[in-house]
Amino acid sequence: MARTPLIAGNWKMNLNHLEAIALVQKIAFSLPEKYYAKVEVAVLPPFTAIRAVQNVIEGDKLQIKHGAQDVAPHDSGAYTGDISGPMLAKLGCQYVVVGHSERREYHEESDELINKKVKQAIKHGITPILCVGEKLDVREAAGHVAHCNDQLVADLKGLKAEQVAKVVIAYEPVWAIGTGKVATPADAQEVCGALRKQLEEKYGAEVAGSVRVLYGGSVKSGNISDLIAQPDVDGALVGGASLDGEEFTKLSAMAAGGPFV
Length: 261
Ligand SMILES: O=C[C@H](O)COP(=O)(O)O
Description:
14% strand; 8-stranded parallel beta barrel; binds glyceraldehyde-3-phosphate; single chain; glycolysis; alpha/beta
């Protein structure tokens, strides 16, 4: 089954809403129209910039999509500081990152919590981009495939096959995030392929064939082509390089088969 590549720019805790407007305009107007048939491009601003980005995208009828970096596990209530699925849906968010290693580490998010967040996103019609990935010690002990599979199983617990079909998976080896140490295309394929196999075993070939599995970790315009050429790599979750309009546009064009002109 053909899967349209997804390039999602995770801006993390960067850019105020004015800077966000400038960046989304730069990306949208730099990427030639023809590429949008071949690649889906999304930006994931911090919560404070989502409304501004939504306005630009809807006002200028841009083809770029937008989303968020986290979602609360509850619909509403006394959860100070949290942002709910219904709030994000109202802001036109199509995607939300769930289970990023930075949330697992700095906010001590458990698989149980991440599982609730995945369910919340789906409940409110937002596609979760579920991140899994191993730390360096796990990889050095050759436990990376089992570790990522275990995270996947725990984070999707209780979901029906038709719900899993709505999820995007992102394999992000922690040692490659923000370090400049990109996984080799073979490394990325090994885990992305294993994750898809796991999906097939649990949810069937149709679901496994339709779910997009991204790679994330030091992706740039110079390495995206080799990564996305792998049979089970369907795009990228991009951090640092997504903050540079020209670089992110070039990267998106390369994912669409390039060249960037
Ligand atoms: O969400 C994105 C990933 O954490 C990758 O970040 P990076 O491209 O800066 O390595």
